[in-house]
Amino acid sequence: SESGQKPKTVDKRAVIGTCEPVVDIVTRPQEFSESLLLPSILENLEGINEKQRTTMKELLQEFQNLLPTSDSDVGRCNMTQHRINTGNHPPIKQYPRLLPLGKKEEAERLVKEMVDNGIIEESSGPWPSPIVLIKKKDGSTRFCVDYRNLNEITIKDSYPLPRIDDTLDALNGSQWFSTLDLKSGYWRVEI
């Protein structure tokens, strides 16, 4: 050959490489959309002056990449990756539970939706756990995984919570308070 390397003979059953789909999501910059950034609830806030409204719009514009653009957009936390410490315990193998036909179709639809939205990916491993479909108050379905057997053998973390009086003292003198709620927060941190 031109490169000076001699041809090699490889057994036809030998694995010389593997291919895997790329699962990283590359976000594209979004153009500023006032309808995206100014939900109707913000427009109807009482007790907020025009300067505060402008400041809020600017903050929403600056951090619009953190806001969902659709119901299926749940985002991803890249600050940490969750690890489950099972010590030296051998894998617990649980098998799928039988689902009625209607529930099976719903499970397949939900799995496809989560794969399409980058929430889950196909995998195989020694720690399978069964899924559970729970009906929510609004009639929709919550997709869950039954990790009870895994939880029993998981080595527990010890992270003490802050004392409530220290937390309240830290808020002393504050005039503005807000609450943030993650959409589908359970699916945000990678495992």
Automatic annotation (TrEMBL):
Transmembrane segments: none annotated. Residues 134-190 form the Reverse transcriptase domain. InterPro entries: DNA/RNA_pol_sf, Rev_trsase/Diguanyl_cyclase, RNA-dir_DNA_polymerase, RT_dom. Gene3D superfamilies: 3.30.70.270, HIV Type 1 Reverse Transcriptase, subunit A, domain 1. It comes from the Eukaryota. GO terms for biological process: DNA biosynthetic process. This is Retrovirus-related Pol polyprotein from transposon 297. It comes from Araneus ventricosus (Orbweaver spider).
